[in-house]
Design a protein that fits this description.
- The protein is an alpha+beta fold and about 220 residues long.
- The chain contains five helices and ten strands.
- Strands 5, 6, 8, 9 and 10 form a five-stranded antiparallel β-sheet that branches.
- The radius of gyration is 19 Å and the shape is globular.
């Protein structure tokens, strides 16, 4: 049944003449209620398409937790409390960032195959592929402004959707890398670190066509 559906979608993609298709979710501008519904639909499709999308990044569990958090803060905000509305807006921003990561993952995993993209997302028409981009260059690390901070500065990459920043409290251990931020800016202030401790930091460029290689690890002590 799954193979039949994939063949049908591939035929549809050929029918509408899609080449090196580009993934889109059409999420921006949606009201929060509709955004929550749409994200849940996509999570369901991703679960059903596990034969193609084996290791989603972030995981389905993480995405489900994020949309549940947004749903809860959205419902709580109905009483008009300004602080809760502010939290809802933060949760919405986090949700969209994570969906951008899924967009890049789907694009990379599908290889631009419209049939595979259509299993879980929509296809953007009339656009030339951006391609996978290298990691930013000219990476510099400095002390932050307050205790427990490191300031990351790097060069820009044309065509990027965002930069993915990871941090490692044990730089020699490849299993302990953790996401810190997804940002469109060339400067990131990393907070909440142990003052005087040394950290490894790396960064990758993400476009609508997927994520590029990680930069070399750069070491810096927190202020």
């Amino acid at each position: 049944m799954f193979n039949y559906a994939l063949k049908l979608l591939r035929w549809l993609a050929q029918k509408i003449k899609l080449k090196m298709a580009t993934t889109t979710f059409k999420l921006f501008g949606l009201p929060v209620d509709r955004l929550i519904t749409r994200v849940r639909e996509i999570i369901g499709k991703m679960t059903d398409a596990v034969a193609v999308y084996v290791t989603p990044d972030p995981t389905v569990v993480v995405m489900t937790a994020a949309v549940d958090k947004l749903d809860a803060s959205n419902q709580a905000s109905q009483n008009g409390d300004r602080l809760i509305k502010k939290q809802r807006n933060i949760d919405r921003k986090v949700m969209l960032q994570k969906m951008s990561m899924w967009q890049a993952y789907i694009q990379s995993t599908s290889g631009g195959d419209a049939a595979k993209i259509l299993l879980v997302a929509d296809v953007k028409k009339g656009r030339s592929p951006v391609g996978i981009k290298p990691a930013p260059g000219k990476i510099r690390l400095y002390f932050g402004y307050d205790a427990g901070e490191i300031r990351l500065v790097h060069g820009g990459v044309k065509g990027r959707t965002f930069y993915r920043v990871q941090i490692n409290a044990a730089p020699l251990n490849p299993a302990t890398w953790a996401d810190y931020a997804q940002t469109t800016k060339v400067q990131t202030l990393i907070k909440g670190l142990v003052s005087g401790a040394e950290y490894g930091i790396r960064i990758a460029t993400v476009t609508v066509d997927g994520q590029g290689d990680w930069s070399d690890t750069v070491l810096q002590k927190a202020l």
